[in-house]
Design brief:
By secondary structure, this protein is an alpha+beta fold. The chain folds into four domains: about 70 residues; about 90 residues, OB fold (Dihydrolipoamide Acetyltransferase, E2P); about 70 residues; about 120 residues, Immunoglobulin-like. Helix content is about 35%, strand content about 30%. Strands 10, 11, 13, 14 and 15 form a five-stranded antiparallel sheet that branches. Strands 5-4-3-6 form a four-stranded antiparallel sheet. Strands 7-8-9-12 form a four-stranded antiparallel sheet, with no helix packed on it. β3 and β4 form a beta hairpin. α1 packs antiparallel against α5, α1 packs parallel to α7 and α7 packs antiparallel against α8. The longest helix has about 30 residues. The radius of gyration is 34 Å and the shape is elongated. The chain starts with 7 loop residues before the first strand and ends with a helix. Keywords: Membrane, Metal-binding, Transmembrane, Transmembrane helix. GO terms for molecular function: metal ion binding. It comes from Blastopirellula marina. InterPro entries: Cu_oxidase_CS. This is DUF3592 domain-containing protein.
Amino acid sequence: MPRWFRIWEKKRGSRRTVSRVVATVGETFFFSALFFFGVIFTAMAGASTWLESWPIRAMFPEVAYVEGEGIVQEVRVVEVGTEEYPRYRPEALVRLELPERQYVRWTLRRNEISYSTEQAAWERIEGYKPGWIYPAWFDPDTPGQSIVLERTPAYGLWVIFLVLISFIVIGGIGLIYTLLLIGTSVERRAAMAKKAKTLELLREAMPAATYPSIPNDANLTNSPGVRLAFRLPIEVSPGWWLLSTFIFSLLWSGMAAVFFIAALGKHLAGQPDWLLSIVALPTTGIALAAIYQFLREVTNQTRVGPTGLEISNHPLYPGKEYRVFVTQAGKMKVKQLRITLICEEAATFLQGTDVRSETKRVVEEEVAAASGFEIKPGMPFEADYQLKIPEGSMHSFKSDHNAIHWKLVVQIRAENSTRLTRSFPIVVYPADVELVR
């Protein structure tokens, strides 16, 4: 009895097969999580550093330090550690004079340093002379407890940014690569390579000067099919749609992270900015909704899988019949799969000072329909149908202000409420062209 969910499949000859659905979903979610983690936390870390607020201020307090003048009154070396392993810490007594009051503190650096010998500690502190004025840094909120003569380099902060940026780069490259590969398969590429050897490199075509208003079908016939002559390209690739959704959620999430960390920092500092908080809440909500919609689109696209449509000949002519071969991969129970032939007329015109565009559907005929079947991983739905272009139909046309577009539309309705529509453009020539040829 076959398993419902297979992660690994068995080896067939020299080729090992795996579950493409699991692989694609796993890669997409992994790279998405890596990328969004990097973007959101980089934005939060950048905003926190710029605003000198939580959490960077809690991790690296010196980002908020300001410079002042400190007078060294005395220097000393303090013995620390244990009797077996003594350590020696150099310190200076610094007086910081501010307009409101004076502060005095034994200090040198925020991260205390110690040496194994007393002589080394004295050599470290000998550069500070009592009675001299030196630059001193302090936290404006707690100057008495934060005076230092030497600031500690924030190497850890740069490491954090470097790691987060590496997440963005790795996740972004991996995600874009995965999205652009949605809809392709190893078998498809192998079939293209095999059939390309027998495909004519130069196909008879009508001169462009004879019918300049008919769109060129070169981009529709440059890909050989597996069963039939040509594989039609899809109008809008799922990968590009996912990429656009991904970019929007990315930009909005980065902006929301900045607003969120700024509002949170104000609240933690005891100075809440309610207007900023009101703006941050819906912005964050939209960011979460955008990320959810992106992940939902990824799930739908990978569950439905690629749709392929092949045709026996091209271009097409009114009154003629052709074969179409449809393949649908994925993992789902399909209520209905419907193929429709559609012709749309588009017009662009001026209305006053506005440029308007209108589209009217003039032909809509059902080519084929299938219902009540299940698609399993590695076992795509395949069917062969007959297509007839209605007699007397207007041919494909394109000008500056008017156009007539023909296309085949595959509509999928699954049991889990998933609905997808994928369009494949075609070119219809005038019937008299075929007679001339």
